[in-house]
Amino acid sequence: MPSPLAVFTYDDFDGNGVKEAFAVCAGAVDEESFGDDGPYYSDCQIWYADSRGAKLIKAEYNNFPLYGFSQELMAAGPQKLFNWGICAGGSGSRHLLFGVRHGKPYELKISGQYNVVREQDGAFVAEGSDLSKGWHDYPLFFYRFDEKKGEFVPAQPKDPKPVE
Fold first, then answer.
1. How many CB atoms lie within 10 A of CB 78?
2. Angle at 56 between CA 100 and CA 73, to 5 degrees
């Protein structure tokens, strides 16, 4: 039996005119941990639901129970992406991204690889973490959304200014 419902996001994720939902069930909630990011949840399960029923799509990250907080939906072409933030502090943060294609949920290939993924001026910017130079660097990676693949693909930066 899933934990209590903590987050419910209902929208047309694949742009086909039919609404689907992503829901997060959580065993515990801390209303104050992350301020502007909203409540922080632990022992989470991410579910997908449509008119045919519900399906568990993620309950662990790196072999540990899933935790984190809900981020705003990300628009990518005609699709919308469910964005889940995992925060272990600074460079331990990751964003998980989920979409719907042909009525089926999927986790994008770049999901969990970057500290932050966000839309900026019509492009998508991902912030990485690199300690190889002897200090903590946060390199930026630029992507565009390939609507046919339903995935992010590398792109050239439109504006090389750092993300604020």
1. 12
2. 40
What is the token pair recorded at 86? Answer: 């995992």
Indicate whether 29 belongs to any domain: yes
Task: List, as own/partner pairs, every contact residues 150-159 make where C-beta atoms lie below 8 angstroms and the sequence separation is at least 24, other chains included.
Answer: 150/79, 150/99, 150/101, 150/106, 150/108, 151/108, 151/109, 151/110, 152/76, 152/108, 152/109, 152/110, 152/124, 152/126, 155/123, 155/124, 157/123, 157/125, 158/121, 158/122, 158/123, 159/121
Q: 151: part of which helix (H) or strand (E)?
A: strand 151-154
Please give the backbone phi and psi of residue 15, each rounded to the nearest 5 degrees, phi first.
70, 20
Q: What is the pTM of this model?
A: 0.87
Domain count, the chain: 1
What is the C-alpha separation between 46 and 163, in angstroms, rounded? 29
163 within a domain of the structure (yes/no): no
55 to each of 10, 28, 52, 161, how far by Cα in Å?
A: 15, 21, 10, 41
Residue type, 100: V
Distance CA 132, CA 27 (A): 37
Q: Convert the pLDDT of each residue in 31-55 to its tens digit.
A: 766 556 667 788 999 999 999 999 9
The whole domain housing 60 covers 5-154
